Amino acid sequence: MMERRHIAFGVCATSVAMRAISGRCRNADRLELCLALLDLAADDEEAREATVAFCRGSQTDVVAAGEDLREFVRFWRRHLPPVPEFEWQGRVDVNG
User: Fold this and answer.
1) DSSP assignment, residue 13?
2) Closest CA to 29 of 40, 43, 21, 17
3) CB neighbours (10 Å) of residue 96?
């Protein structure tokens, strides 16, 4: 269920972005985002680039980096394939 892993990464990224925008981003939050990337979306080049950009940018301007990360998630989630509501909806023999 790769789609759900990507959704979980998006939720983590949004959480970190909101902490950054509020000025409460810590190194532990940056680490949380990096670990989520490795565990959940390591195959996604755009997610890797956004994570690196956030970690670098948040060292100098945490609010701007948080806003950029939030915008990335808004754009990125629209390009993810839909998650089937039921198991049978993802079956190739049923849906071609």
Assistant:
1) H
2) 17
3) 5
pLDDT one-digit tens code per residue, 42-74: 989 999 999 999 999 999 999 999 999 999 999
Alpha-carbon span 73 to 82, nearest angstrom = 15
> Using only C-alpha atoms, what is the Rg of the chain?
15
d(Cα 33, Cα 85) in Å, to the nearest integer?
Answer: 27
- Interior/surface letters 22-52, b for 16+ CB within 10 angstroms, e for the rest: eeebeeebbebbbebbeebbeebeebeebbe
Quote the CA–CA distance of 49 and 44 in Å, as a whole number.
9
Residue 41 sits at φ, ψ, to 5 deg, of -145, 35
Domain segments of the chain as ranges: 2-80
